[in-house]
Amino acid sequence: MQLPLFARYRQFVIISLVFATLFAVSAVAYYKYQQTLDRKTLSNHARIIADDVWAINPAGVENYLRLAMETQHYKSISVSIPGNDHFITLQSPEMTGLAGFLSRTGLIWTKELSKDITHKDLHIGKMQVIQYVQLIFPLLNLLAFYLLLFLLTLFILFLSNRKRTLESLVRERTHSLLESQRRFHDLVNLLPEMVLETNIDGSIRYANSEARKRFGISHENSDGCNLFDFFPADTRQSAQDQFRRNLEQGTLYQDILHDKDHHAFPVLLRSAPIVDASGCIGARLLLIDITERQRMEEQLNRDHKMKAIGLMAGGVAHDLNNILSGIVSYPELLMLDMTEENPLRRPLSIIRKAGLDASEVVADLLTVARGSRGDLEIIDLNVLIQDYLDSPDFEDMRRRFPLVEHSFIPASDLMFLSCSPIHVRKCLMNLVINGFEAIEGKGSIRIVTENVNTTDLQTTHPGLPNDKRYIRITVSDTGKGIEEKELEHIFEPFYSKKVMGRSGTGLGLTVVYNTVRDHDGATRVTSSELGTTFELLFPGTSNAVPLKGKNHLQVLKGNGETVLVIDDEPRQREIATTLLRSLGYQVTTASTGKEAWRYLEKNPADLVVLDMLMGPNQPNGKEIYQQILTINPGQKAIIASGYAEDDDVRETLTMGATAFVPKPYTMNSISRAVYDTLRAPARQHDMAS
Asked: Hey, which residues does 207 pair with through a beta bridge?
C-alpha cells in the first residue's frame, strides 16, 4: 500500500519549510536593517552639507550630493532653504540594462526620505531624496546561500537515510532468511507426509517429525539409518534400482515400506536430486502413506458397483409394482364384502400378503436405486424400536427362534431423529433378522441406543463432520460371526451366504447401508467367532416429535366427489377406479394427457390422480399437471407411481400436488391420500412463476 505524499517526503518537506522560514526571517531582518541604514546615511549627508548650505555655497553642496547619489542609488535629490525651495535639485539618469528591466517589472522600486538640515541647532533647510530600493540583489545572494546550504543538508540527509536503509535492509533480509528457514522446518514438520533427505547410498541425513515417528529415527542424529532398511528384504534391491532411476527421471512411483513396528504400508514416493559442483550427492524424498486412499478407492468402487446394480434394479421396479397392484388390491376389495367366517377370506389374505411381501422386495430395490430420503419425519427412535419389538413381524421371528433371547437398552435422554421412518425401521428389521438367523441354538440379540459426540468417533469414523451430534444404534448378536474376507462384501447387493430364495433376497444389508448413507450417517460392523455387532450412526436433532392424530378407514370414505384418474395402464385405471368407487367417489379415467386436458376443459374434477410415468412419446405426470394448471389453476391432485419419489415428483408437489401414493395401491394409502387432499384448502398456482 502506498503512503500519502507527505509521509513519503516528510523530511524533504520539513527541511524545505525550515529553510524557507530562515530565508523569510533573514529577508525581513535585512530589509529592516537597510531601512535604518538608509535613514542614518541620509542624516549623515544632511550634517555634512550643513556648513555649505549655511554659507550658501551651492557648488560645494552639489558636488557632494552627486557623489552621494551614485553611491546610495538616489533617483533624485532636492535641497530647499528658506526663501528658495529649489536651492539644489539633482536628477539621476534612467536605469538601463538589468536594473532598468527589474525597475520596469517592479522588482526595483523607489521610496521617499527627507531630513531637516540644521546648523548649530538652527533649522536652515530641508533635504528630500527619492531612493531606488534594490533589495532584489542582496536577497538573491541570500537565497543562493540558503539554497547551497539546503542542498548540502539534503545530501547529508540522503547519505544518512541511505545508510539506515541499507542497514535495515540487511537486518530485514537476515531476519527473513532465518524466518524462512524456521517456517520451512515448521511446515515440513507439520506435513502429514514423510520428508527425508539422504545421501546417494540412501543414508538418511534429515527426517521430518512424521518420518521420525513412523520409522523410529532419533531427532538428534539420524546417522546409521538407511532408507532401504525400511523396505521388505525381498524388494530391497529393486527399490535401490528404482531409487537411482528416479533421481534421473523424477517420476512418482508406488512401493511398500515397513514402519518401526514392522507393519507394512503402501506409499507414493517421489524424489529430487541434491546437486553440487561435483554432481548428484543425494536426494530429497516425499513419501505419502496411501493406506486410507486405497481404502477410499475400494469404497468408491463398491459404491459405483452398488449404484450400477441399483439403477438396473430400479429399472424393473416400476413394472413390478404395476403387476403387483392386482395381486394386492383385488383381494382387499373382495374381502371388504366378506364375513370373517368366509372360507375364501384366508386364501385371499395369503394372496394379498404375498403381494405385499413382493412389494417390499420392490421397495428394497427402489431404496438401492433412488435412496431413502423421500419423506422425512422427526421421530423418537426408542418408540420406533419398541413398536417394532411389539409388532407381529417380530413375534413371528421369536416363534421361529424360541431359544434366542433379546434385550433393548434405550437411552433415557436420546435425541430425536429426522428420517424416513419406514426405511429406518427396515434397517432395524433387517439387522434383527440377520441376528436371529446367525444364531444356531441358544443365543441373544441386544439393541442399544445412545447419544454420541463426533469427538468420540474420530478413531472409528474420521470422516464425520465435527459440528454434529449423532444417535448410535447398536445391534449385537451371539451368532457364529462373519469371516473377515466377507466383511468388505456384505453391503453389496445380492451378496449373501444364505440360501437365496429361502432366507432373504440378498438386499437386506444393502438397504441398511444405503439408508444410513442417505441420512448422512455412517455404518460400522465388527465380527468375531463370538458374534457380530452393527453400529448405525444417524445425525440427531433437538426438535420435538410432532403429535399426530389417527384416521380410521371408516371415516375416510367420500361423499360423491368426482375424481379423474390419469394412467396409461388399463389395469391400473381399472384398479384405481374400483377402489375409489368402493370408497364412494365418482370416477372418470383418461389414458393420456391430451384426453385429460380435453375432459377438464369441459368438466370440473374435484381431484386428479396422476400417474408420473406415462407411455412412450407422451408427456409425463409433471408436464400434464403443468398444462392442467393453465386450464384450472389450483386444481387438487395426488401423484401415483410404481417408482420411487424423484425430482419430477418433488417439483410436481411444489407446483401444487398434495400427496404421493406408491403403487401397488392399498385401500388405506389411497383412501387417506384422497380424503386428506379433498379436505385441504386449494393452493392457487401462479403460472408466471
From this structure: 196
For 242-303, give the DSSP string.
HHHHHHHH---EEEEEE-TT--EEEEEEEEEEEEETTEEEEEEEEEEE-HHHHHHHHHHHHH
C-alpha cell at 274: 541434491
Instruction: Say if residues 476 and 482 touch (Cβ distance below 8 Å).
Output: no
Q: How far apart are CA 607 and CA 558, in angstroms?
A: 12
Q: Specify burial of residue 641 (Cβ count, 10 A radius: 0-12, 13-18, 19+).
A: buried
Please give the pLDDT value at position 160.
Answer: 87
**Cα–chain-centroid distance for residue 321?**
43
| Residue of 652, 571, 568 whose CA lies nearest to 616 | 568
Q: 522: helix, coil or strand?
A: strand
- In single-letter form, the type of residue at position 124 comes to I
Determine the 3-state secondary structure of 469 from DSSP: strand
Q: What is 407-465 written as a DSSP string?
A: EEE--TTPPEEEE-HHHHHHHHHHHHHHHHHH--SSEEEEEEEEEEEGGGGTTT-TTS-
504 conformational bin, left if phi > 0, alpha if psi -120 to 50, beta if neither: left
List phi, psi (to 5°) of 240.
-65, -40
Q: What are 93-100's contacts with CB under 8 Å, separation 24+? A: 95/132, 99/134
CATH architecture of 553-679: 3-Layer(aba) Sandwich (3.40)
CATH topology of domain 10-139: Beta-Lactamase (3.30.450)
Cβ atoms 640, 549 nearer than 8 A: no
Bond prior to 664 in cis (omega within 30° of 0): yes
The residues of the chain scoring below 50 in pLDDT are 1-3, 220, 372, 499-502, 547, 549-555, 685-689
Cα 156 to Cα 137: distance, rounded to the nearest angstrom = 29
Domain ranges of the chain: 10-139, 191-289, 371-541, 553-679
* CA distance linking residue 13 with residue 7, whole number of Å: 10
> pLDDT value at position 556?
75
Q: Give the integer Cα–Cα distance in Å for 595 and 590.
A: 6
Q: The C-alpha cell of 13 is what?
A: 518537506
485 CB-near residues (< 8 Å, 6+ apart): none
With CA atoms as reference, report the closest residue to 563 among 459, 484, 640: 640
Q: Give pTM, 2 decimals.
A: 0.47
Cell of 402: 424360541
Residue whose C-alpha is closest to residue 213's, from 260, 172, 171: 260
CATH class, range 371-541: alpha beta
**Cell (9 digits) for 273:** 536430486
- CA nearest 575: which of 357, 321, 317, 325? 325
Classify domain 191-289 by CATH number. 3.30.450.20
CA distance readout (Å), 287 to 71, 205, 272: 98, 15, 12
Sign of the Cα pseudo-torsion (160, 162, 165, 169, in order): negative
Q: Which three cell numbers mark 637? A: 391432485
Question: 283 has which bridge partners?
Answer: 198, 273
Residues 561/585, Cβ–Cβ less than 8 Å: yes
What DSSP line would sit under 92-150, residue for residue?
Answer: PPPP-HHHHHHHHTTSSEEEEEEEEEEETTEEEEEEEEEEEE-THHHHHHHHHHHHHHH
191-289: same fold as 10-139? Answer: yes
CA dihedral over 617, 622, 627, 628, signed as positive or negative: positive
- CA–CA gap between residue 272 and residue 287 (Å, rounded): 12
Distance between CA 568 and CA 318 in Å, rounded? 13
Query: What is the SS3 assignment for 78?
Result: strand
* Amino acid letter, 72: Q
d(CA 463, CA 300) in angstroms, rounded, equals 14
DSSP character string of 166-186: HHHHHHHHHHHHHHHHHHHHH
